[in-house]
Design a protein that fits this description.
19 helices; mainly alpha; globular; Growth Hormone, Chain: A
Length: about 425
């Protein structure tokens, strides 16, 4: 990871970007914490839901993955609409939609209903994450994005730090209340913040620099000039079809598929892995899930800062995948030694969760405008098909072998392949 550090920006520029960061990032992070919690709380519900509804591990894995089929089909159209109508309205609409669908999971009684609601949740949430990545390109030049995206994506481990203990507490504390099980209360209670934040987004978020009343005219001109300087040579206006025909988009989609497979291999199965390591009780499992996620927060920020300071993208994106592969392999070796298993899962989390924000430094270095809207959505939607493959493969292998080991090995190998694919990206393409 060697490259010349970037020269220090002026004090005025640093102050303006600090102002923008504090205005946007805390709110966007909060939205993503809620989004990610609603997406993966099925991993906690599973601890009770499978026995209550007589679901197999394969049914759970397929249902968990169905989210990403809906996500895949509606991702690109959703991001194109966001680019046209603005983030404030569209992000708010997305959050309200997924909050309503997430709450509806309390009514699940069959595998068919489970599959249908997971699919609809993916449709509802389609466009949220790539929409935020696109939105950040409206404010920050490419050489500032790695740390900004990493900061935004700390929402993933933060959702684990707080969401794990919260989910475990809800399932234990509310079980049996009003005739509902703990997992039913989990879906209802954790859907409420999405609804509230959806309406808050329509009031709080600005569509871009020009519409930000909290910036002075001089500050707006400075930000716009930095984006103009950064956009030289960046592909701006292309049709959706031409973007999808670009082999670079497919190469990057494959890389992202590998990274996402690792990320969801961890987040969907972390509670189960801890249970297999000897941890008992949903609250205890929830508390211990906070450990790997806490370590991952620090790692994400350090990786992002280093990538921007050195203006190096490829090795910074590949290294976490290698770390994640090693962590998964070590987790399997730890067996039922709880302390060692938590340590190994923390190593895995450092790599698997840090890899995705660093990845986004690659496509946003050469895509902008409408091309970025279509390209980011295409990469995210194709890559997120791993969210379907990962839980289904692990669930099927777990049912077939009565062990999670083979599934973890498969995911570890995929991480190694993804790291190799990153290093095949031309350095000149992502050197900004």
């Amino acid at each position: 990871m060697t490259s010349d550090p970037v020269s220090a920006p002026s004090a005025l520029e640093s102050a303006v970007y600090r102002k923008v960061t504090w205005r946007l990032l805390p709110f966007l992070m909060l939205c993503y914490v809620v989004a990610y919690l609603d997406r993966v709380n099925i991993g906690f519900a599973k601890l009770q839901m499978l026995d209550d509804l007589a679901f197999s591990e394969t049914v759970y894995g397929l249902g968990a993955g169905m989210f990403f089929i809906g996500y895949f089909l509606f991702e690109v159209p959703s991001n194109v609409v966001l680019h046209r109508v603005g983030a404030r309205l569209w992000i708010g609409r997305i959050m309200i939609s997924w909050g309503l669908v997430s709450a509806a999971f309390m009514f699940v009684t069959s595998s068919t209903m489970f599959y249908a609601l997971r699919f609809l949740l993916g449709v509802a949430e389609a466009g949220f994450y790539p929409g935020i990545i696109l939105y950040l390109t409206y404010w920050f030049p490419s050489y500032r994005r790695a740390r900004v995206i990493a900061l935004f994506m700390t929402a993933i481990p933060v959702s684990g730090i707080f969401g794990g203990p919260l989910s475990g507490w809800i399932m234990e504390r509310f079980a049996g209340r009003q005739g509902l099980t703990g997992w039913q209360w989990l879906f209802v209670i954790e859907a409420i913040p999405a609804l509230l934040l959806g309406f808050a987004t329509m009031w709080y978020l600005d569509n871009g620099i020009r519409s930000a009343r909290w910036l002075s005219e001089d500050e707006k001109r400075l930000l716009e000039q930095r984006l103009r300087d950064d956009s030289a040579g960046i592909v701006q206006d292309r049709s959706v079809g031409s973007v999808l025909a670009d082999p670079r988009i497919w190469h990057l989609s494959f890389i992202y598929f590998c990274a996402v497979m690792g990320q969801y291999g961890l987040t969907f199965w972390l509670p189960t892995l801890l249970q297999s390591a000897g941890v008992r009780g949903t609250l205890h499992i929830g508390l211990l899930t906070a450990v790997p996620y806490s370590v991952a927060v620090v790692a994400m920020l350090l990786f992002g800062r280093s990538a921007d300071r050195r203006r190096e993208r490829r090795w910074h994106a590949a290294t976490p995948l290698l770390i994640g592969a090693v962590g998964l392999w070590l987790t399997v070796q730890a067996g039922t030694q709880t302390g060692l298993a938590v340590l190994c899962l923390s190593i895995a989390a450092i790599g698997l969760i840090s890899s995705t924000p660093l990845f986004w430094g690659l496509p946003t270095a050469f895509l902008g405008g409408a091309a970025a809207a279509a390209g980011i959505a295409a990469i995210n939607s194709i890559g997120n098909l791993a969210g379907f493959a990962s839980p289904y493969i692990v669930g099927w292998l777990r049912d077939s072998t009565s062990s999670a080991a083979s599934g973890m090995y498969v995911i570890a190998v995929v991480q190694l392949v993804g790291a190799g694919a990153i290093l095949l990206v031309p350095k000149s393409l992502v050197s900004k």
